[in-house]
Amino acid sequence: xxxxxxxxxxxxxxxxxxxxxxxxxxxxxxxxxxxxxxxxxxxxxxxxxxxxxxxxxxxxxxxxxxxxxxxxxxxxxxxxxxxxxxxxxxxxxxxxxxxxxxxxxxxxxxxxxxxxxxxxxxxxxxxxxxxxxxxxxxxxxxxxxxxxxxxxxxxxxxxxxxxxxxxxxxxxxxxxxxxxxxxxxxxxxxxxxxxxxxxxxxxxxxxxxxxxxxxxxxxxxxxxxxxxxxxxxxxxxxxxxxxxxxxxxxx
Length: 251
What we know:
- This protein is an alpha/beta fold.
- It has a single domain, classed as TIM Barrel, CATH 3.20.20.
- The protein has helices spanning 2-17, 21-27, 54-63, 83-94, 114-132, 148-156, 176-189, 203-219, 227-231; strands at 32-33, 41-43, 45-49, 69-72, 75-76, 78-79, 98-101, 134-136, 138-139, 160-162, 166-167, 194-199, 223-225, 236-239.
- Strands 2, 3, 4, 7, 11, 12 and 13 form a 7-stranded parallel β-sheet that branches. Strands 1-10-9 form a 3-stranded parallel β-sheet, covered by helices on one side.
- InterPro entries: Glyco_hydro/deAcase_b/a-brl (IPR011330), NODB_dom (IPR002509).
């Protein structure tokens, strides 16, 4: 009888010590990155691709011994699996830029259910892995909007959430001159690190603003690196060989 009571008490204590599903989610909740941590680094990032200006952006970056980070959607400006877009994703990866997730259809993730969130993450990760062989360790939520559900899904997928500490304003409709002024003022302030938001989908970003941004920031001694490098971390969870194209490569 006494043994049964002791066993009952033991099981009760053990059960109370077990974490709930909600507690487990909180433990694996993704970290939110808003700035770099390696001094004197500038991470130039580009959202909303793959798009045709990626080659022009790469040309500017390479001419300046710089690398960037591209947050790709699965289906925003076309399907990531199209021959042209898959080529762009692979090109960015092969050029040494960091490839990361912007989720599938550029939706406001804070409006989605858990299952919908998982789909937005998983489909993009799968596409990037098929095309490059690498699984992203970083993602950026569209519009920079996230909640605990987004962080839980990102954490479950072992991804960190990247925001920014400087917005060029290219997607806000401000003039090219105003975007350049923002970069000039940023360089004048000379913060320890810079984590920018730009978009791959604007010709003015590739041809006008980016060269100006690099010139201004380089004059202040910044080194142009990927997001992973500006944090001293690995860009991918794992790296392997790209997959062969199949009928499954569709949006």
